[in-house]
């Protein structure tokens, strides 16, 4: 790996070891972060450090607020319309629906205003409709999309042109897996648990002038203006999850930042896609080549719609080799290899070797 990555590249295991080391005695204080008050100056230092690392890694402009909230990505499916759909009088928003997660977000937004799906309805989530087929609404308060559809393995390789309307993006499953120009967005959110930490904290990056437009029924904990004014401390934040995110961001920084993550993620995913593409149809990825995800690689084994017995055998064999969590989401079946930042090139290579071995054993 030394040829491919900076010398200091090392396993994210380091983060867990540090958390373990500090679990009972954080920074010589004699207590754990789990016991610490969220109002203490020590926790405040962690919160500030997490924010400044994120600002540095994503080059976040000064006119954006960074929030660390509870409620997960799903909480943001509600928070986004509650805070932003009232930006313009029509109370409407445009949605791109390219998979399970954006579909859920659009459905939730319908509770608070009018939702326009801007492209012809997709019968399967295997491609991103051509931008030329989108009809954007000039009076929409925002245009929403999910940059990486985790279940279906569909990822945007470009930033949509929102034509003067605020762009809102769910980056939960590809956050910090590649560089991003934050200034193109009104708001970005991401649950930490895939690429930047553990479950419990959701990062929201929002431009300042979008604060203060929440609907009156917006719960106070979801009100971006309130949370921004209180530096995410309106209520008790997920302290330990924020601390883990801080360690992961430090790890990303020490390993070359988002550009290095992108290089690594390209290499990892190419190893798997190359095997799929050279397998003469034994492995089949249903996703259009132009929008294949670098984070989640879904594929079927044996034939296009999957030979279930063979897929079970594939999963069992993988399990014997110590490779777990490869089963596709229950709504799509098959196999899904998730290659988040913490997955190493060696991990991806071990899967690729196993896929080659399984192919040789079963190809007919
Ligand atoms: N958005 C995306 C892209 C996701 O992958 C997920 C969960 O996997 C969610 C939103 C929902 O996140 P949560 O489970 O934190 O509510």
TrEMBL record:
The keyword Amino-acid biosynthesis applies. It catalyses: 4-(phosphooxy)-L-threonine + 2-oxoglutarate = (R)-3-hydroxy-2-oxo-4-phosphooxybutanoate + L-glutamate; O-phospho-L-serine + 2-oxoglutarate = 3-phosphooxypyruvate + L-glutamate. Pathway: Amino-acid biosynthesis; L-serine biosynthesis; L-serine from 3-phospho-D-glycerate: step 2/3. It holds the Pfam family Aminotran_5. GO terms for molecular function: O-phospho-L-serine:2-oxoglutarate aminotransferase activity; pyridoxal phosphate binding. It is an enzyme of class 2 (transferase). Its cofactor is pyridoxal 5'-phosphate. Residues 14-351 form the Aminotransferase class V domain. PROSITE patterns: AA_TRANSFER_CLASS_5 (PS00595). GO terms for cellular component: cytoplasm. Keywords: Amino-acid biosynthesis, Aminotransferase, Pyridoxal phosphate, Serine biosynthesis, Transferase. InterPro entries: Aminotrans_V_dom, Aminotrans_V_PyrdxlP_BS, Pser_aminoTfrase, PyrdxlP-dep_Trfase, PyrdxlP-dep_Trfase_major, PyrdxlP-dep_Trfase_small. The keyword Transmembrane helix does not apply. Its EC number is 2.6.1.52. One of its GO terms (biological process) is L-serine biosynthetic process. NCBIfam families: PRK05355.1, serC_1. Belongs to the class-V pyridoxal-phosphate-dependent aminotransferase family. SerC subfamily. PANTHER family: PHOSPHOSERINE AMINOTRANSFERASE. This is Phosphoserine aminotransferase. It comes from Nothobranchius furzeri (Turquoise killifish).
């Amino acid at each position: 790996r030394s040829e491919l990555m900076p010398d200091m590249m090392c396993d994210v295991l380091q983060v867990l070891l540090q958390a373990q080391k500090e679990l009972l005695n954080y920074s010589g204080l004699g207590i754990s972060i789990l016991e610490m008050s969220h109002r203490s100056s020590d926790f405040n230092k962690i919160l500030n450090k997490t924010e400044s690392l994120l600002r540095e890694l994503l080059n976040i402009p000064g006119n954006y607020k960074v929030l660390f909230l509870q409620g997960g990505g799903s909480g943001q499916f509600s928070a986004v319309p509650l805070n932003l759909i009232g930006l313009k009088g029509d109370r409407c928003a445009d949605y791109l629906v390219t998979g399970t997660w954006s579909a859920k977000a659009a459905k939730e937004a319908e509770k608070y205003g009018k939702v326009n799906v801007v492209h012809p309805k997709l019968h399967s989530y295997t491609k991103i409709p051509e931008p030329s087929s989108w009809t954007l609404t000039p009076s929409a308060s925002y245009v929403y999309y999910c940059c990486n559809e985790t279940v279906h393995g569909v990822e945007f390789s470009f930033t949509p042109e929102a034509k003067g309307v605020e762009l809102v993006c769910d980056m939960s499953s590809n956050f910090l897996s590649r560089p991003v120009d934050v200034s193109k967005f009104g708001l970005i959110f991401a649950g930490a648990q895939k690429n930047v930490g553990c479950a419990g904290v959701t990062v929201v990056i929002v431009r300042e002038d979008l604060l203060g437009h929440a609907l009156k029924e917006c719960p106070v904990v979801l009100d971006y203006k309130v949370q921004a004014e209180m530096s995410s401390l309106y209520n008790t934040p997920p302290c330990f999850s924020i601390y883990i995110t801080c360690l992961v961001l430090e790890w990303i920084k020490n390993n070359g930042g988002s550009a290095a993550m992108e290089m690594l993620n390209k290499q990892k995913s190419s190893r798997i896609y190359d095997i799929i593409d050279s397998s003469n149809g034994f492995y089949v990825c249903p996703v259009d080549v132009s929008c294949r995800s670098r984070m989640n690689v879904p594929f079927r084994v044996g034939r296009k719609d999957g030979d279930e017995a063979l897929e079970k055998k594939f999963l069992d064999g993988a399990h014997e080799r110590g490779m777990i969590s490869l089963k596709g989401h229950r709504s799509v079946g098959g196999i899904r290899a998730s290659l988040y930042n913490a997955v190493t090139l060696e991990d991806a290579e071990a899967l690729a070797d196993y896929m080659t071995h399984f192919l040789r054993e079963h190809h007919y």
